[in-house]
Structures are given as C-alpha cells and as structure tokens.
UniProtKB/TrEMBL annotation:
GO terms for cellular component: cytosol. Belongs to the TRAFAC class TrmE-Era-EngA-EngB-Septin-like GTPase superfamily. TrmE GTPase family. GTP binds at residues 229-234, 248-254, 273-276. InterPro entries: G_TrmE (IPR031168), GTP-bd (IPR006073), GTP-bd_TrmE_N (IPR018948), GTPase_MnmE (IPR004520), MnmE_dom2 (IPR027368), MnmE_helical (IPR025867), P-loop_NTPase (IPR027417), Small_GTP-bd (IPR005225). It is an enzyme of class 3 (hydrolase). (6S)-5-formyl-5,6,7,8-tetrahydrofolate binds at R22, E84, R123, K453. It is found in: Cytoplasm. One of its GO terms (molecular function) is metal ion binding. This is tRNA modification GTPase MnmE. PROSITE patterns: G_TRME. The gene is mnmE. CDD domains: trmE, TrmE_N.
C-alpha cells in the first residue's frame, strides 16, 4: 500500500447537478476532518460505508454544501481509505474543493492511479483493471456486457485455469527429474502430448475471439462507397435517423469525408461517408475521390451503394476492381424504383436490396452484417471474449511456447527439454493477468485511463 494520499475529480469538470471529488490514501480521513463540518454528527464517528451531510469550509469561509461518502480500507475500490465528496457540479465549486483537498495534504492523482492502486493492492488483476477502461469506453450493450464480465474476473478465471494445468505438469516433471526412483516418466511423453494439444486448442479458441471482440469494443471501421448520387449520404442519414449528411440531386455534393459512429442492433459501426468515386476535372472533388480510394484499403467493411435503376458503367467497374477482395456488402439502392442485380451477383456474395429513402430493406442489411462478422450470433455472455491486443499477443506467445514443447516431443528429446518452454507458456499467461509485470507496463496501461478513475 502506498503511503501518500491522492485526489482528483471523479466526474467531468462541467456545469452539472452533482460533481464528485475522490480522495484515496491513509490520510484521507484526516484531510476530510480538516475541511468538512457535518450538519449534526461529529467527524470522529465516521464509520465505513456511511454518508454524511454537511459543509466544506476553507477556514471560516463556506465553500459548498455537500454529502461525503466514507469507505475505509481494505473494503474500498483501492483497498485504501476512500472519501468521495459529492458537491454541486459547477466548475468553480469543484475546482475550489479539489484545491482545498490538495492544500490539506493530498496530491493530484495521475490518470488511472485509483485503479492502479486497486491493482497494486491486490483487489483486481490486470485484466479486470483494463476492463474498467473498456467499460467506461463501451459504445454498445455487448461491449458493456463483455467488459463487466472481465471486471468480474471471467478472463482471469480462464487464464488461471490454463496456468494451473501447465504448472501441474511442470511440477510433476521437475519432481520426476529430481527423484526418478519415486516418479516414473514411462509413457509420459504421450500423456503430455495430449495435454499440450488440449491447451493449444483452448488458447486458439481465445485467440479466435479477438476479431469479434475488437469489433464489439471499438466498432467496425466501415466506409460507404459508390458513384455520385447513388444514395450514400441518404443511406447514412437513414441509418442515423437524422440528417447529418447533405443530400441533393447534384452529383458530387459530398466532397469531403463525413465520419459518424452509430449502433445498429448492438453492432457498432464507425461509418465514413465518402465522396462519390468517378472521373472528375474538379480539383476539390478529385481530392475527395482520392481520400475515398485510400480509405478503402483500411476499412473492415465496405458498403458499396449502387443505384439499381441504372446500368453499371466504367466507374462502377473501377470500384468493383478495388473492393472485390475485401469484406463487402453491396446495397442495391432505390429498390422501390428498380431491382436489377444480375451483373453484381457474379462478383459479390453479400447483396441486399434497400431503399435508403424510406428505410426498406435495412433490417435485411443488419442481418447480413451480423452474419458476416459474428456468425449470426453476437451474444457473448457465455463465452470468454478478448478485445485487448496485449492479451492476444501474449496468448500467441504462450501458444508458440507450447508448440515448441510438441516439437521436442516429436523430435524425441529428453523430458527436461519440456520444462523451459512450459514455464515460458505459463509466464506469458501470467503477464496477461499481471502475475508478473514491470513499472513501464503498468504506467503504459494506466496512463490511458481518465483522471479520477
């Protein structure tokens, strides 16, 4: 447990009904006693999990009317004594209270330092700490559910189970090598081969969840492409439910990139409406077309909007050549006028007829989206799903180490060759949950947190 006491805003600094200033550390109680005057009770009576109404004073000057919450360690978020001052949410009021707390003996907390203390004091593991930030940043219910499950320790439990299997085999090997009279290794290579293969299979299952987990947490990078006046901006407005993109009958109205984030039936899309792709002599318009072509290369998903009332031309063929090897949903727009898709069926598997103007066919588009990215099932409540690239990389390293064990078995090497790679696999898994870590890693992870968390 660290010796100094930290403080920060726990809510955004804005004009709101309520603001919270959080204090954590061994001096929290003493600090609040210096500045808080309760309405009735003596501050000596502070008990854990209690709320107290009163006033914050700077000397004889009343600063604000507040309610303070007292949570004594180790039964608090940080496992230290924690005080939360619930004050009025005005910017000046909150600043005055925080400055008074700092003047009374606390120091300003670093980003994520409250959660870092929770980790260092053993309240949560590293995956739960990282999941706190995922929870804060969740943009849809599925991301929130996955973050909550990891805060509760679902990934931690899975990783600990894998490590337990590895260390059990390693311990037996070490004992057998040190005491061959009492522990036999006859037939052991066949036994551990099965065990290692099962471990690799379990780790592979976790690694395979990463893409979907990343899409759920961060959203699917989606670009809308098509010729001018195909209905791209109308589609974006239809999906958003409001007019965010300019829609006219004039070709080339969208000359720049229009970025929007939206959630469709729980699926988060980071949408980019691009300039219509076509040959043009207009300098500004050509810049927009160039940007559109660049974004195609980076997208997770391309929505190719086609005016189904018109025949495909050379501009369409250029677009098709650029996108045909990528994840594409072809949206045949203006289905209320025409529905001719025979030419595109030869090029693309995922084709949906829609009317961006009246919303017809959008449900079919969402179903197609779910099938493409989540195999028709986006409910991850029963599964462990990873969305953190650090976790994925360490799982890959652990798997690689286990495959080296298999290599040693297949090459007929002595059993003592297994132990080094088994322990490497064990330690890489330990790095995920923070069993082993260094200050640079901790600083890097928690520096991404917001102040006061």
């Amino acid at each position: 447990m660290t010796e100094d006491t930290i403080a920060a805003f726990a809510t955004p600094l804005s004009s709101a009904g309520i603001g919270i200033v959080r204090i954590s550390g061994e001096n929290s109680i003493n600090i609040i006693k210096k500045i808080f005057v309760p309405y009735k009770k003596d501050t000596k009576e502070f008990q854990t999990y209690t709320a107290h109404y009163g006033f914050i004073y700077d000397g004889d000057k009343k600063i604000d009317e507040v309610i303070i919450l007292v949570m004594k360690g180790p039964h608090s978020y940080t496992r230290e004594d924690v005080i939360e001052i619930n004050c009025h949410g005005g910017i000046l009021v909150m600043k005055n209270i925080l400055e008074l707390v700092l003047k009374s003996g606390a120091r300003m907390a670093l980003p994520g330092e409250f959660t870092k203390r929770a980790f260092l004091n053993g309240r949560i593991d590293l995956t739960a700490a990282e999941a706190v930030m995922d929870l804060i940043n969740s943009q849809n219910q599925y991301a929130l559910d996955n973050a909550l499950s990891n805060v509760a320790g679902k990934l931690n439990k899975k990783i600990k189970g894998l490590r337990e299997e590895i260390i059990t085999e390693t311990a037996f090997l070490e004992c057998a090598l040190d005491d061959p009279e009492h522990y036999s290794l006859d037939g052991y290579s066949e036994k551990i081969e099965v065990k290692v293969k099962n471990l690799i299979k379990e780790i592979d299952c976790l690694i395979e969840t990463f893409d979907n987990g990343k899409f759920v947490q961060d959203g699917i990078e989606t670009i809308i492409v098509g010729k001018p006046n195909a209905g791209k901006s109308t589609l974006l407005n239809c999906l958003l439910g409001e007019e965010k993109a300019i829609v006219t009958d004039i070709p080339g109205t969208t000359r720049d990139i229009n970025e929007q984030r939206l959630v469709l039936d729980g699926i988060c899309l980071n949408m980019v409406d691009t300039a219509g792709i076509h040959d043009t002599d207009d300098v500004i318009e050509s810049i927009g077309v160039k940007k559109s072509l660049e974004l195609i290369e980076k997208a997770d998903l391309i929505l190719y909007v086609v005016d189904s009332s018109k025949e495909l031309d050379e501009n369409d063929k250029e677009i098709i050549d650029r996108i045909k090897e990528k994840n594409v949903i072809v949206l045949l727009n203006k289905m209320d006028i025409s529905n001719n898709n025979t030419q595109l069926e030869k090029q693309f598997e995922n084709i949906v007829s829609i009317s961006a103007k009246n919303g017809e066919g959008i449900d079919n588009f969402i179903n197609k989206l779910n099938d493409m990215f989540f195999s028709g099932n986006i409910n991850f409540n029963e599964d462990v799903v990873i969305s953190n690239v650090r976790h994925k990389n360490l799982l890959v390293k652990s798997k690689d180490s286990l495959e080296l064990v298999l290599g040693a078995i297949y090459d007929g090497l002595p059993e003592d060759f297994y132990t080094v790679d088994l322990m490497d696999a064990y330690n890489f898994l330990g790095d995920i949950i923070g069993e082993t870590f260094n200050d640079d890693l901790a600083d890097n992870i928690f520096s991404k947190f917001c102040m006061g968390k």
